[in-house]
Design a protein that fits this description.
The complex is a heterodimer of chains A (112) and B (114). By secondary structure, chain A is mainly beta. In chain A, the strands form two sheets. In chain A, strands 2, 4, 5, 9, 10 and 11 form a six-stranded mixed sheet that branches. In chain A, strands 1-3-8-7-6 form a five-stranded antiparallel sheet, with no helix packed on it. In chain A, a hairpin with a 2-residue loop joins strand 6 and strand 7. Chain A starts with a strand and ends with a strand. Chain B has 114 residues and is mainly β. Chain B contains no helices and eleven strands. Classes of the chains: A mainly beta (112), B mainly beta (114). At the A-B interface, strand 4, strand 5, strand 9 and strand 10 of A face strand 5, strand 6 and strand 10 of B.
Chain lengths: 112, 114
């Protein structure tokens, strides 16, 4: 079974600092990677998608992918209290019984 | 553009009953995926439908089934409900399927089995 691993946290970061969220995956042929944010009691919302090695930036968010190390990360610059949420890493490896596989998420707390 | 719509938002059922959940995808999206979310297991994949065909299926028992209609709307059915089926059921749509385009989630249906 394909696995996506995340540190459950909580990860506590001061307001204005950089939050760094990490994710590792087990299937070497994984091809699509996504970060979702989920507030308590709400459904996941897409933050970033990344498909090739390197960095992808969107506003305060940067996704980094290293397929050789089977590692994907999300950096949040100038962290705000509104960034406090659970961040879910999702990996697609060609479907089958796992579909788009989600990690269990990292709980991020931004301290004012 | 309207988002993914799931109905109903909340359901309370008794063990042994069956339930049908409904999902309307974003206009133009042809793929609909269903997930079960629980505090202990996180998001677990149930199945994906694309153009009325089941494309992928997760490791859930046959009590869990679904279908997709020609307008891309989808339904999920759970028969002979068990206490362990209590969860948040999330529907997500994507333009071209899970591997090609991101999923966009609905607000979910909270199912409680007593």
């Amino acid at each position: 079974q394909k696995e996506v691993e995340q540190n459950s946290g909580p990860l506590s970061v001061p307001e204005g600092a950089i939050a760094s969220l990490n994710c590792t995956y087990s299937d070497r042929v994984s091809q699509s990677f996504f970060w979702y944010r989920q507030y308590s009691g709400k459904s996941p919302e897409l933050i970033m998608s990344i498909y090739s090695n390197g960095d992808k930036e969107d506003g305060r968010f940067t996704a980094q992918l290293n397929k050789a190390s089977q590692y994907v990360s999300l950096l949040i610059r100038d962290s705000q209290p509104s960034d406090s949420a659970t961040y879910l890493c999702a990996v697609y490896s060609g479907g089958g019984a796992d579909g788009l596989t989600f990690g269990k998420g990292t709980h991020l707390i931004i301290q004012p | 553009k309207a988002g993914v719509t799931q109905t109903p938002r909340y359901l309370i059922k008794t063990r042994g009953q069956q339930v049908t959940l409904s999902c309307s995808p974003i206009s133009g999206h042809r793929s609909v995926s269903w997930y079960q979310q629980t505090p202990g297991q996180g998001l677990q994949f149930l199945f994906e439908y694309f153009s009325e065909t089941q494309r992928n299926k997760g490791n859930f028992p046959g009590r869990f089934s679904g279908r997709q209609f020609s307008n891309s709307r989808s339904e999920m059915n759970v028969s002979t409900l068990e206490l362990g089926d209590s969860a948040l059921y999330l529907c997500a749509s994507s333009l071209d399927g899970q591997g090609n385009s991101p999923l966009h989630f609905g607000n979910g249906t909270r199912l409680t089995v007593t």
